[in-house]
């Protein structure tokens, strides 16, 4: 079944194009950020993380950008594939705690 | 293949009944989280433990929910009595966390889907 439903923002991209998913966070005391991918009926899976002392981190086909000035996080997926279709969540951790708070999520649809 | 294991995967119950969800964290992980996911609220943090001690359960309705870690290999989330508004997918996650400031990813289980009629 669906993990999160009707009220999610949706990003539709053509297969092979690049995707950019955005996340605004609220706590200036957050010191660690993670992007997760959630497929229908499954638990969230780790994609990439970044600490607050960095502004960019790259993985395989993914890049996370952090702008602390405007409290904004983005996930870039290069050459988007059908298997990338999922809901993507950003999570932030409050400094000095182990408290991970998740954003509302964005649904990515990859069009063939 | 280390993974977080949750049981039951699906549970349908009637209002007023007690529900217990169980989680086996990844061996060696010292921090365990319970999240609830609904269409309207997304992923909400209910409670979390470090080294089996509850650190924060402020996200949990105290009158009917309780979370415990009887030992390092088992975390439980109990709802008594259950209500229709508790219907959701409940996720357990675990991680290996050092002192605050030394962090890492959370590993999620597949979730327990609860339906309260």
Please describe what this structure looks like.
The complex is a heterodimer of chains A (112) and B (117). Chain A is mainly β and 112 residues long. Chain A contains no helices and 10 strands. Chain A has strands at residues 10-14, 19-24, 30-38, 45-51, 56-58, 62-67, 72-77, 86-94, 100-102, 106-111. Chain A is globular. Chain B has no helices and 11 strands. Chain B has strands at 5-7, 10-13, 19-24, 31-38, 42-50, 53-56, 65-71, 74-79, 88-95, 107-108, 112-116. In chain B, strands 2, 4, 5, 6, 9, 10 and 11 form a 7-stranded mixed sheet that branches. A 4-stranded antiparallel sheet of chain B has the order 1-3-8-7, with no helix packed on it. Chain B is globular and about 40 Å long. Chain B has 117 residues and is mainly beta. In chain B, 0% of the residues lie in helices and 53% in strands. The chains are: A mainly beta (112), B mainly beta (117). Chains A and B meet through strand 3, strand 4, strand 8 and strand 9 of A and strand 4, strand 5, strand 9 and strand 10 of B.
Which consecutive residue ranges of chain B, at least 5 long each, have pLDDT under 50? Answer: none
**Morphology of chain A:** globular
Strand content of chain A: over 45%
Mean pLDDT across all amino acids of chain B: 93
Helices of chain A, by number, come to 0
* Strands of chain A, total number: 10
In terms of quaternary structure, the protein is heterodimer
- Strand-pairing-aware structural class of chain A: mainly beta
Largest sheet of chain A: 6 strands, mixed
Q: Whole-Å distance between the termini of chain A?
A: 23 Å
Mean pLDDT of chain A: 91
N-to-C terminal Cα separation of chain B, in Å?
36 Å
Helical percent range of chain A? under 10%
Largest interface: A-B, 33 and 30 residues
> Could you describe the largest sheet of chain B, including whether it forms a barrel?
7 strands, mixed
Binned, the helix content of chain B reads under 10%
Number of separate helices of chain B:
0
Q: What is the ordering of alpha helices and beta strands of chain B?
A: EEEEEEEEEEE
What's the helix-strand series of chain A?
EEEEEEEEEE
* Rg of chain B, Å, rounded: 14 Å
């Amino acid at each position: 079944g669906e993990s999160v439903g009707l009220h999610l923002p949706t990003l539709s991209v053509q297969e092979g194009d690049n995707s950019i998913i955005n996340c605004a966070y609220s706590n200036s005391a957050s010191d660690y950020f993670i992007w997760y991918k959630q497929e229908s009926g499954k638990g969230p899976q780790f994609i990439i993380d970044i600490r607050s002392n960095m502004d960019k981190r790259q993985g395989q086909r993914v890049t996370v950008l952090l702008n602390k000035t405007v409290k904004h996080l983005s996930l870039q997926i290069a050459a988007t594939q059908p298997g990338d279709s999922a809901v993507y969540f950003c999570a932030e951790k409050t400094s000095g705690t182990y408290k991970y708070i998740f954003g509302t999520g964005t649904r990515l649809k990859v069009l063939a | 293949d280390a993974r977080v294991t949750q049981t039951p995967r699906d549970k349908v119950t009637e209002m007023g009944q007690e529900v217990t969800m169980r989680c086996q964290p990844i061996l060696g992980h010292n921090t365990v989280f319970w999240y609830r996911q609904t269409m309207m609220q997304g992923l909400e943090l209910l409670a979390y433990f470090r080294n089996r001690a509850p650190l924060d359960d402020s996200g949990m309705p105290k009158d009917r929910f309780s979370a415990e870690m009887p030992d390092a290999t088992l975390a439980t989330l109990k709802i008594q009595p259950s209500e229709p508004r508790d219907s959701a997918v409940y996720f357990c996650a675990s991680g290996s966390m050092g002192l605050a400031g030394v962090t890492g990813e959370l590993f999620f289980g597949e979730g327990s889907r609860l339906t309260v009629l």
